[in-house]
Fold each of these.
Amino acid sequence: MTSEPVLEMLWETSDPRAVLNERFGFSSGIEAVVWLRRVVSHHYDMSLESCQRIVMSDGNALAWISTSQGRFIVKWSTTPEKFARLAALSDLTAWLASRRHPVSAPVPSRAGEAQIVVDGASLNVQHVMPGHHLDVTDGGQVHQAGVTLARLHADLRAYPQAQYMSDVPRPTRSAHALISSWLESDLSNLPQAPLDALRAHLAAASTTPMDVQLVHGDFRAANVLTRGTQVIAVLDFEEMRFDSPVGELARSAVMLGTLFHDWGPVSPQVHEALLEGYENVRPLSEAERSWWHPLLLWWSLLMVPISGDNPTGWGRAAERLTRVLNSVEER
C-alpha cells in the first residue's frame, strides 16, 4: 500500500497540495509516489519502497525516497527552458565528484545519463547526504567552508566543458561599474556611514579587470552540509554563474548564515574566518584583496530591505562592519 508523503513548500507560503497539482500535475501525494515508483524502477537499478517527503519551490520538486539500494533524493523540474542547463549542471556535478569534491553526485541512469527527461520533467537521483547545515557559530566549520570553496573554485576554473555552458549567466559590467551605478540610485533607505565607507573603498579598489570563471553561485549555510568540522556536501549548483572568485567569496561571507526561512547577517569575525580558510588554499591577489572590503559592504547593503531595516538587522550589521573596517585601517 502506498503511503501519503509529507508535502511542503521550501520557502513559499502557497498550499503544497495545490502546488503539486498546478505545477506538477499530481492530484495527490500518493499519485506523485506512484509516478516516482514507475520512473525509478524503469530508469534506475533500484525499486522505490516508500517516499517520506516531497518539498517544492517554483517549478522544482525534491522527494526523499527509500529504495532497494538505500535512501535517495529524486529532484525534478517541470520548467522546459531549464532542462539544458540542468543536464549541464548534472554533468558538472558528476565531474566534481570524480575530482573528490564533497558534492551530491547524480546516480547514473541505466543508460548512463546523469540527468534524464521523462514525462515532461527533467530529473536526477542523488544520494542522501547525512549531515547538518553549516553552523556559523562554529569557527572550525566556517574555516573549513572557506577551504572547501577555494578548492571548488580551483577545479571549476579547470572544468573542461566550461566554454560550452552558454546559458550560465555572465557579468555584463565590471564590479566597479556596477557598484558605481548602484551608488547613484536612490539609497535613502540605507545608513549613511556604510555608504560613505563603500565610496571610499571603491575609490581605492584596483581598476584592473578581474578574471571571471565558473562559481557555485549560492554558497551559504542552506547549501553546505557538515559533520563535525568537516564539510561533507556542497549542494544546489542551480545558481551557478561566471563571476570573479573574490566576488563569490565576499557574497558568501555576507550571506553565509542564511537558511530557508532565516536570512539574518553574520558577524565580521565570520567573514574573516571564511577568508582565512579560503586563503589557506588560494591566497587572494593584491587586486582581489583591494575588492574584499568594498564587496563585503556592498553585499551587506544590498540585503537591507527597501522599506528600511528588518528584525534580523541587516542595516545594523552594515554599520557594525563599517566600524570594524575603520578600526582595522586605523591600526
Amino acid sequence: MGVRQRHARAGAALVTALVGAVAPAPGTAVAGAPGAGTPVCEVRDDRLTEISGMAATDTGYVVVNDGADSEANRRIFFLDRRCAVVRTVGYPSRPRDTEDLAVGPDGTVWVADIGDNDRSRETVALWRLAPDADRPVLHRMTYPDGPHDAEALLIDAGGRPLIITKGGGSVSLYAPATALRPAATTPLAPVGQVDLPNSTTSNPYSFLGRGVVTGAANAPDGRRVVLRSYADAFEYDVPDGDVVAALTTGTPRVTPLPDEPQGESITYSRDGRSLLTVSESADQPAGTRPTVLRYPASTAPAASPRRPEPTTAGPVAATPARPEGEVVATANRIWPIAAGAGTLLALLGLAGLLRSRRAARR
C-alpha cells in the first residue's frame, strides 16, 4: 500500500470516527425504507473496476471507467445484458477524467470528461460518439467562473448537454452557451442550482456522501431525470421537457441506495420502471466484482431541502463565500459535529480522501 493510499484510508477512517458518534439532526430522514438493490449481472472483465458512468441500451449497457490512468480507462465499453463486454471504442487522444455518460434518443453516446478533483483544469470536455462510429469526437468547454469538479451529465429535450457539479449539499448546473463545435472551445453558462434533500441513508462516506452528486440519468421517455449521491437517488418529474426547471423548482422522489461500495453510476432500465446502479470495485476486497443492481423507482416524497441547523450554542454565523463544491461549503452541517481542531482534522481527512483517490490506485 503506497503512502498516498495510506493517507486516503486514514482520512476516511478519521471522518468516519468523527461523524459516526453524532446522532442525525432532527427532520433529515428521507422518506422510504432503505433496501439493498437486486443483482442483475456481474461485470467480470478485469478492465472494468472503476466504472463511473453507465447507460442502459436495448442490447445491454454502455460504461466508462473513472479517470484515464491506464489504457483500459481510455475506452468506451459496450456490454450485453449479462454484463459481458462485446465491443470497445478507443479515444483519438487521451481523456483527462471521464466521469459519466448519456445516450441520446438517436443512439449517440456522450461521455463526460468533466472530473477535476484538484480544480485545476482550464477546460473540460464531452466526447460524442455517433451510432456505429469508430471514434468519438472531442468538444472542449470552459466554465465562466473557474474550475469545478463534476461527475454527472444529463441531456435536455433539445439535445443540449447539462453538467451537474459534484457540489456539497447544493450543486450547480451548466450548459453550453453556444453550439458545440469540434476543434473549438465552447463557453459554458450557469443555468441553475439544485439543493439536495436531507438524508440519513447509510453509506461509506457518512454525511459527506449524502450531499454530493456522483451521477445522473434521463428516463427513456424523457419525462423524468434522476441525480444520485453516494447514498440516494433523487428523481424529478419533467412534464414539459424542461430539465433545468424540473431540477431547480421540483421536489424529487427519493430512492435510498444504502451502503453501495462506491456508487457513482446510475441509469434507468429501458422500460423506465427501475433504476440501475453499479459501483466501483478497485478499492474493495480482492475478488469483488462490479455488480449492476436494480431498484424500483420510489414514489415517496423527499424531505425538505437542506437548511442550516442550529447548535446548542445558538444560530450558526454566516460563513464567507467559498468555491462551490468544497467540503467547507457544508459548514452548517460540519460545525455541529466538531469544533476547532476536530473540524480541521475532518476537513483535512476528507480532502486527502477525495483528491488522492485516483492517485492511490496507481
Amino acid sequence: MTTKELILSKSLQLFSKRGYEGVSMRDIAAEVGIKAASIYNHFSSKEEIFNHLLKEMELRYHQAVSAIGVPKGSAKEAANGYVDITEEHLQEIAKGLFLYFLKDEFAAPFRRMVTAEQYRNSVAGDTFQTMYVSNALNFQSALFGVLIAQGVFMESNPETVALHFYAPIFLLLSKYDKKPEKEEEAIEALRNHVSQFSRLYSRG
C-alpha cells in the first residue's frame, strides 16, 4: 500500500469514528506515521481527502456489484436478468450486497462516515441521499415497474414495492452494524425478508 493509499485508509477509519470535523490533518498524519507537514505532499487539504474517498467508494461499489452478480445496465436491461431468477439466486444477491455494506473494510466505514456526517456536511449529506436513498429507490422502482409490466410481479405501485424491498434491508444494516457475532442472525433475518417479499409480489 502506497503512502497515499494509507492516508485514504486511515482517514476513512478516523472520519467514521470521530466525524469529519473531529479529525485534523495532523491526526491523519500521526495515524499514518508520517510528519504532519509530509501529508501535504499527497493531499492539499482534508476536503481533497474526503473527495477522493467519495470517488473511491463509487469505483469500489461498481466492482462489488459486478463481482456479486447483480444484473447490469438500465432498469429495463437489468429486469431481463430477473425475469427467470430463482428465489435462491435473489437471496444470494441480497446477501452479497448486504454483507458488502455491513462488513467490507472500505464500504462499511464509508457508510458510517456519511451517515454520521450527513447533517453537518452538505457533500456527505448529498452522498448519503444519492447513494443510499435516491439512486437505490429510483433504480428499484424502475426495475420493479418493468417486472410488473412483464407480468413477473403482481400489479402494484412500483415505488411502494421498492420501499417494501429496500427499507427493511437498510434497517437491518443499522441493527446489525458492528455486531459480527450476530452475522448469522442478520443473514437469517435478510433471508426471511427476501422470501416473504417474493411470496407477496411474485407471480411465480
